[in-house]
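ok posting inputs for the calcium ion job
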Amino acid sequence: SGGGSGGGSDIRFTAVQPNKDDKLTIPDGYQSSVVVRWGDPVLPGAPEFDFDNQSADAQNKQFGYNCDYVTVFPMGRDRALMWVNHEYTDESLMFRGYTGGATATEEQIRIGLAAHGGSVVEIERAGRTGEWKLVTKGRRRYNRRITAQTKMKFTGPAAGSDLLKTAADPRGTTPVGMLNNCSGGTTPWGTVLTTEENFNQYFVNADKVPEAQKPYITRYSITTGTPSSSRRFDRVEERFDLAKHPNEVNRFGWIVEIDPFDPDSTPIKHTALGRFAHEAATTTLARDGRLVVYMGDDGRFEYIYKFVSKDRYIPGFDRHNRGLLDEGTLYVAKFTGDSPAAELDGTGKLPSDGQFDGYGEWKPLVSGDRSFVAGMTAQEVLVYTRSAADKVEGGATKMDRPEDIERNPVTGGVYVALTNNTNRTAAQVDEANPRPSNKHGHVLEIVERRDDAGETTFAWSLPLVCGDPNDASTYFAGFDKTKVSPISCPDNVTFDKDGNLWISTDGNALGTNDGLFVMPVRGRERGYVRQFLTVPVGAETCGPLVSDDQRSVFVAVQHPGETDGASPDAPSSRWPDGEGSQPRPSVAVVWHAGGKKVGG
Ligand code: FEO
Ligand code: CA
Ligand code: CA
Ligand code: CA
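and the output
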């Protein structure tokens, strides 16, 4: 039956209990396996993973570290291409005795560069269930590694801008590598959009850039000096030293498009989509066929953005469609509450109209070569988007760390994970960010005017205010709080085909492991949050992805064992390989043993 069509939902599994176990815990009746691990050979000639003898040459041909966004492109029923982001490296868990970038060997630094980026890998169905495995034999023509050293190109209005020119690229059109690719999305023409998030941490000497650039450096929190926590990529590639190459940092922080079906294609950094700590890149079509991309900027007090293409998507007209992301309008969101400010007392108590809700507008920042921000050129708006959003007339709304964004395929509602913001003070609460010192985060729903993603006004509400349900400041869409799972720090979100919202968490502030949750968003069970799985010690839950046939849930288990003081000589996790092994970030798949719809 169609999910929720009778006012209920098809979600029936028994919720997993919060725990601190060093394993992937799944509901009764389900099975799981690891699809691909950090270090697994994926390119021809790649050696088997050998923790104590890792090399950059091996890492360039092996699956990278810290898997984040996961998406799957079917190639028939039993074979598919899987794309996975490799967000960042944790050298203190990758190398014995690691004491920082200043003392690392150059080979270790090169391993770090190679372990970033992303992977395209071929996977195949195992048996008749929802299990999938890495293809390890025969020709794998699509397998590919993208790293911090892969040649790329800029397109869109800021390509070739003076702000993007460096000694190595005097035309400002050919950046090298991508960094901190967090969440992402896909395009209707079958490519990946992967998002460069916290690129600020890879550079050194940001305090030594020309004076005119310093306000922008500060606005993006780029690393000053050469702190011991820095990876010191500059020791093997001078471009990461901003004292010598101040514009290099402007070449990161973009949405990158990668064609998984063309292993020889050059990844594209799309300047029309702006530059910030990009998280989501969710595409949908406006009613008139224009392409819309929803994007978050994951920082405390940062903004939510969307891009609307100038031209329309034309099914099958590939050459035309692939230009859509190069010309359009970039907007930033302003949220206005409909309840009196006096009713937002910071306790989380709902206002008298019973909802944190209101209306909002998308404010244009730049459209092609036209800037809507006083004192900034169009290219400046695209390269220094945060500063542009700060200055936009009438103001934009500073949010509690906008992470992933997804559009519900059934209702059309746009859901945003706001993971937390412990820096918000009582004086800074607003109806869209109603809790001071917000430890547990919330989920925001945007309903565009006429349900048209191309519109510039919308209604919004908070269906979920996270935390321990016994905490009076939580809200589960009015559902009975004695029945729901505790949930903290929503990060990545996805929908299944029935329109149920799947929420993964990062940084669970309730003291137990992170996990994956399901919440129906309509019908009698709207707000009924149930925990579907927990990840091992120290990990966050990324991905997630429910397959189109709803037989498989893919999750990226990122940074298992990343806890204070952990090291290869004192690991806090042994997942997934068990006793005597080191933790390895991996993509896992979960399916119902009897072949039922996942969650059903
Ligand atoms: Fe990489 Fe905002 O999580
Ligand atoms: Ca209200
Ligand atoms: Ca994330
Ligand atoms: Ca995260």
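notes: Residues 106-115 form the longest helix (10 residues). The two ends are 11 Å apart (CA to CA).
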